[in-house]
Amino acid sequence: MSTITLFETPPPESIHSQIQQMVVDYVTDVSQVAIAPSNPLYNLYQYGVGYEVHLYLQAMDGSRGLAVELIVATDAQDPEKVIGFLLYLPVKDDPQACSVAYMAVREGYRRQGVARAMMQRMLERYPHVELACVVGKVPVFEAMGFQVLAARGPQVLMNTRDHGTDGLVAVLDIAPIYRSLEVRQIHAYLLQQHGKRAMVDAEKQRDRQLDQMTRHARAFVLERLGEAG
């Protein structure tokens, strides 16, 4: 069993740090790129996506002009242990709508209703929810009441309704993260460790995977919406 808690302001440091660690551990699941651990760029995305989530958690204090909310699942037997989190962005000008930004459940606690319980808490506040996921996760969210709307890059756009909201979602500009000194230093270290050729191959591998995922998502949505029509 888990305990579900909503945060509208920054969570305690102990929760913040556990969420950060989960992002690092499960960056393949959390990242849009779905970067594989075997890819030499993996460490770069661990830092980059981890820092993205860190900035969103910080933004919960209102300092960045963003609306950010967080739902955390903790182990009922060990209340200090975070076993899942759901970070989402309420939509401006539409009090019923929000957009899921990141979600993860700790290994060992999956398939136990943790994600569903977090989603349910969010849906009680915002019945009109949008999210994007890889094709393989579509059945999971369909079981929670989401439906396929469209393809968006390498992911499938899903919603609790048959249309998106007309409101706006304010998001962080993450481009500066990937231009930062820290990322350049990580890249330089990886270059030294793996060599230039391996790093060029790693980027090509990532891009090929993204192209393949994009084609897969587009074909899946065309087939699914064709069936629905």
UniProtKB/TrEMBL annotation:
Residue ranges of every copy of the N-acetyltransferase domain listed in the record: 28-178
Keywords: Transferase
CDD domains recorded: NAT_SF
A Pfam family reported for this protein in Swiss-Prot or TrEMBL: Acetyltransf_1
UniProt key word Heme: no
Bilayer-spanning residue ranges: none
GO molecular function: acyltransferase activity, transferring groups other than amino-acyl groups
Gene3D superfamilies cross-referenced by the UniProt entry: 3.40.630.30
UniProt keyword Transferase, yes or no: yes
InterPro entries the UniProt entry points to: Acyl_CoA_acyltransferase, GNAT_dom
Protein name: Acetyltransferase, GNAT family
Organism for this UniProt entry: Pseudomonas batumici
